[in-house]
């Protein structure tokens, strides 16, 4: 069985979605839409039908699934319009601009009995998935801290959101994924240096319900591109490079690996460093495969609307904390 797919929004990210969606087993990419003639013309080589208006496309082509890569402020309107036609939706992160919009999207998916998946890409990064597997197996013991560093030059094309909604949501969701816990406190310092209307630098602190501390260093003001996540716990520290998908495991030399309950933790000393081999996969491809699979098998989406809402809620808390210089608690 093959399902028919389409992409709505053919800008920078939309082009990547078209490239990947055209190659996913179990799915046939049949159409794309974008108001920009330039964006449409750039995708003529894929041999799909291209439309200016996504509504015309949906009514004519009648796809089974749709990937949305439109500006964040349009997510709720377009997603609800698509789902009301009985079409399953994968929407780029963040799920929406407000919690009310996210709630409307989740409610619409439930009402029309369709899947709503949110494109939190790092969940599909092999290095992040390996960290989660090892954490679940107990190799690290209790987690103490998760520290994300996401640095890059300013992308002039992004005008509708700041660095928190556009970038930090990646790491917030990755931290939710690894800890399986929710954020109960958030504090942030932010700055706006190059962006015309939003913050472009974040130093954020999170406290998770299960006790872990999350640290977020996210900026568009660096000439150097870095994407890194470290996770520190009783057994040592994992360091994942999001870009290369390399994973390093720094063992705590003070831990006996035949080891006994966590109550015996007495500190950390330098131990072995092991670079773990992980088969490389393009996270966007894994994400599309997961979306198609959940539709074909009628299972829960890998990243649900509720997951997307949780990441958005923390991001909005950080934005409020940065504006007000206040600690946000739940």
| Structural Rg | 21 Å
Mean pLDDT: 95
- Count of individual beta strands: 15
Q: Which word captures the global form? A: globular
Helix content: 25-40%
The CATH superfamily name of the largest domain is Dihydrodipicolinate Reductase, domain 2
Taking the sheet with the most strands, its summary is:
9 strands, mixed
Count of separate DSSP helical elements: 9
Overview of the structural elements:
This protein is an alpha/beta fold. The chain folds into 2 domains: 3-121 and 284-303, Rossmann fold (3-Layer(aba) Sandwich); 123-281 and 314-329, Dihydrodipicolinate Reductase, domain 2 (2-Layer Sandwich). 33% of the residues lie in helices and 28% in strands. Strands 14-13-12-11-7-10-9-8-15 form a 9-stranded mixed beta sheet. The protein has a 6-stranded parallel beta sheet with strand order 3-2-1-4-5-6, with helices on both faces. The mean pLDDT is 95.
Q: What's the layout of helices and strands?
A:
Elements: E1 3-8, H1 12-21, E2 27-33, H2 37-41, E3 49-51, H3 54-61, E4 65-68, H4 75-83, E5 88-92, H5 99-111, E6 116-119, H6 126-137, E7 143-151, H7 163-179, E8 183-191, E9 201-208, E10 213-219, E11 226-233, E12 236-241, E13 247-252, E14 270-276, H8 283-297, H9 305-324, E15 328-329
Parallel strand pairs: 1-2, 1-4, 2-3, 4-5, 5-6, 7-10
Antiparallel strand pairs: 7-11, 8-9, 8-15, 9-10, 11-12, 12-13, 13-14
Helix pairs in contact: 4-5, 5-9, 6-7, 7-9
């Amino acid at each position: 069985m093959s399902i028919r797919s389409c992409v709505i929004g053919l800008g920078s990210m939309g082009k990547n979605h078209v490239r990947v969606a055209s190659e996913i087993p179990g799915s046939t990419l049949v159409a794309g839409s974008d108001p920009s003639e330039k964006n449409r013309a750039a995708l003529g080589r894929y041999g799909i039908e291209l439309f200016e208006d996504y509504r015309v496309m949906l009514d004519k082509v009648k796809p089974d699934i749709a990937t949305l890569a439109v500006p964040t402020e349009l997510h709720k309107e377009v997603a609800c319009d698509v789902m009301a036609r009985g079409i399953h939706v994968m929407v780029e992160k963040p799920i929406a601009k407000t919690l009310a919009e996210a709630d409307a999207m989740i409610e619409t998916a439930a009402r029309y009995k369709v899947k709503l998946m949110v494109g939190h890409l790092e969940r599909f990064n092999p290095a992040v998935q390996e960290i989660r597997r090892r954490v679940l197996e107990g190799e690290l013991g209790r987690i103490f801290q998760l520290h994300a560093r996401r640095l890059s030059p300013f992308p002039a094309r992004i005008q509708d959101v700041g660095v928190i909604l556009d970038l930090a949501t990646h790491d917030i969701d990755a931290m939710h994924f690894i800890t399986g816990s929710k954020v109960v406190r958030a504090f942030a310092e932010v700055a706006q240096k190059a962006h015309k209307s939003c913050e472009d630098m974040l130093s954020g602190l999170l406290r998770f319900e299960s006790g872990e501390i999350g640290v977020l260093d996210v900026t568009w003001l660096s000439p150097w591109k870095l994407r890194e996540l470290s996770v520190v716990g009783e057994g040592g520290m994992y360091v994942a490079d999001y870009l290369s998908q390399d994973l390093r495991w720094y063992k705590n030399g003070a831990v006996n690996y035949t080891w006994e309950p966590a109550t015996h933790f007495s500190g950390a000393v330098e131990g072995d460093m092991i670079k773990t081999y992980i088969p490389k996969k393009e996270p966007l491809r894994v994400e599309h495969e997961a979306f198609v699979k959940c539709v074909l098998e009628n299972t829960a989406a890998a990243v649900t609307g509720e997951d997307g809402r949780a990441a958005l809620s923390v991001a909005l808390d950080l934005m409020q904390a940065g504006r007000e210089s206040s600690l946000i608690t739940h």
